[in-house]
């Protein structure tokens, strides 16, 4: 990479060095987050101070986008210098073709730079500003068209073809002159307007910048995973963890449900030895537990108290609902009476939490009522056995 900091000869081998370096930068940029690049890249303004381009002498940034932009500028500059040397001899047919190709590639690179410059997010030196790059792009395109004109002249093509190529060449140079602030053709505009317009043959056009300049160089960062791949792997790991945790949660939930079913069936405690003439210890313990809590009489009292407690709770909820309704009606009357002077928040809004609580407790009462019915049904069904467990001598009940 250090080769790019040397003074390179005006030769295609120099382009190959810069091509490989640019490709390595592009590869690295796709695999390393921009904020992780802490390499300072320093470049000087390409034009001498005091010329028609002038400004800050140099700029140093730790940005791959800035380094790529400067390398593109140098590639285009090198291509234009090589093209200028090849186009000197109009008798060299291949030289003129290569000259036109390099000028077109340089124009395409300057055009690409206008789209890449905003990625730097920093004020650039004048040689990289949009107006400068646009002027250079127009100049490269005009010189490419001139190369076609010189080849058409050397090949002794028809006058009409040469005239069309020359007309387009004149237009491109006029555009370049306009962008650079020059107006050298103004003195002959009147004569040009009096002539029949000549058709144009558009041969020169900016060539697109390839994804990779060099096809022979080794990608030094080929072993690194692109940032997009690393992010995809991280998302996969997160998703996998979510799925595993979800399955574990469902497994635990089903395990708890199964344990509840077994407990409701008194399993596995119910699987005791019943071959003898005495009660299993578990039955004795349950009988003692029933007697210690008052036996069946205590259960009957609790069940008989359920309707009274239910009615009391219903009265409390109804009274609360009535008070809320009265308060809201009073608020509405006062709001109607005083209009905009009544600035208190609406009772409907203030009482919303209370009404939500009221609805919640009504639902609780509904569920509790259904549960009470279930308890009463089970009590009626198993009342005889509860009476047996409440007896003082459970062993005497064994048949």
UniProtKB/TrEMBL annotation:
Keyword tags: Coiled coil
GO BP terms: mitotic cytokinesis
GO CC annotation terms, alphabetical: endosome
Record flagged with keyword Coiled coil: yes
Coiled-coil intervals, chain numbering: 310-337
Residue intervals of the BRO1 domain: 1-258
Keyword NADP included in the entry's annotation: no
SMART domains: BRO1
Record-linked InterPro entries: ALIX_V_dom, BRO1_dom, BRO1_sf
Pfam families per the UniProt record, alphabetical: ALIX_LYPXL_bnd (PF13949), BRO1 (PF03097)
Record-given protein name: BRO1 domain-containing protein
